Amino acid sequence: MEVRNLRYVLEVAKQRNVTKAAETLHLTQPTLSKIIKSLEDELGVDLFDRSSKAVKLTDSGAAAMPQIQTILQAVDDLYVKLADVSELKTGRMKLGLPPVVSTVFFPRVFAEFHRLYPNIEFQIFEEGAKKIELLISEGEIDLGVVVAPVDETEFGVMPLIEEKLAVTLHVAHPLSDRTEIGLNELRADPFIMFPRGFAVREHVMKACQQQGFDPKILYESSHWDLLAEMVAENLGVSIMPGAICNKIVNPRVRTVTLVEPVIPWNLAMIWRKEKYLTYAMKRFMSLSREYVNMIAAGSSSSLNQD
């Protein structure tokens, strides 16, 4: 049963005349009559009484018309809904962001996306990178920002940002006037770190162990600004992404380049490889990439507008 044939039936019922309906539908009268007869054979009933000049609905036809109208309305609604989604008039997206980056890179992207597509709903999950990978694997969220590398056999990957970790310490620290610090020089200092599950912590712990020591962790927090304030109180040192360090304004905190080893902090946007990428997801990814490129170019211009 073809949907367009149901529309033909509805037009015949409206015109009460096959010839007039055929003219409206830009069909020949024999063609329309053949289509109606074929549909009646398929349904096993006569929809129209053709015994008089004016075509009338049979009892079966009268019973069928409301159902046909409902079907056609549902099909029309389907096309409208799909058009709304494809044109980003409506939709929902679940996004995983580590607290380390959520306040640094993405507020601008969210603002621009909302301005362009105000009816797209966001649900944001603030979790560590490893938890975000798990949530994506389980299908709980659509997109996530994590620290690369990740398993590219499981995830689709779009590289975003290439950064390095840096040391934050109190201005009274003996090494605060240095331009570079080796990780081994901090082995006696208490560390203020992100909690387990955060990729930054894992990279720092691994680097420390490669230097031959396990850092003494004094405090943990998932909020970079709280870590910075603890450093400002001279409670210990912290190692954070350079982009985070650039947001610290407390004059009692110094940021020094970390060397020996240099610890990369490369962000990527990931999704489950077999997952269908919606129009909204693709557009959000595109805006994120535009913003990162704009930062890299040192531009202050606005994001691209469709």
In short:
Keywords: DNA-binding, Transcription, Transcription regulation. The chain has helices at residues 3-15, 18-25, 29-43, 59-86, 99-102, 106-116, 129-137, 199-210, 224-232, 242-245, 279-296, and strands at residues 48-49, 56-57, 91-97, 120-126, 143-147, 155-170, 180-182, 190-193, 216-220, 238-241, 253-259, 264-272.
SS-derived structural category = alpha/beta
How many structural units, i.e. domains? Answer: 3
Strand residue content: 15-25%
The outline comes out as rod-shaped
State the separation between the terminal residues, measured CA to CA. Answer: 40 Å
By CATH, the topology of the largest domain is: D-Maltodextrin-Binding Protein, domain 2
| Average pLDDT reading | 90
Count of distinct strands: 12
Q: Biggest sheet, in brief?
A: 8 strands, mixed
The assigned CATH architecture of the largest domain is 3-Layer(aba) Sandwich
User: Number of DSSP helices?
Assistant: 11
Any low-confidence stretches, pLDDT <50, length ≥5? none
Helix proportion range:
40-55%
Q: CATH first level of the largest domain: which class?
A: Alpha Beta
Order of SSEs, N→C? HHHEEHEHHEHEEEEHEHEHEEH
Rg, please? 32 Å
General description of the model:
β8 (190-193), α8 (199-210) and β9 (216-220) form a beta-alpha-beta unit. This protein has helices at residues 3-15, 18-25, 29-43, 59-86, 99-102, 106-116, 129-137, 199-210, 224-232, 242-245, 279-296, and strands at 48-49, 56-57, 91-97, 120-126, 143-147, 155-170, 180-182, 190-193, 216-220, 238-241, 253-259, 264-272. Strands 3, 4, 5, 6, 7, 10, 11 and 12 form an eight-stranded mixed beta sheet that branches. Strands 1-2 form a two-stranded antiparallel sheet. A two-stranded parallel sheet has the order 8-9. The protein starts with a helix and ends in a 10-residue tail after the last helix. It has three domains: 3-86, Winged helix-like DNA-binding domain superfamily/Winged helix DNA-binding domain (Arc Repressor Mutant, subunit A), CATH 1.10.10; 91-160 and 266-296, 3-Layer(aba) Sandwich (D-Maltodextrin-Binding Protein, domain 2); 163-265, D-Maltodextrin-Binding Protein, domain 2 (3-Layer(aba) Sandwich), CATH 3.40.190. The protein has 306 residues and is an alpha/beta fold. It is built from eleven helices and twelve strands.
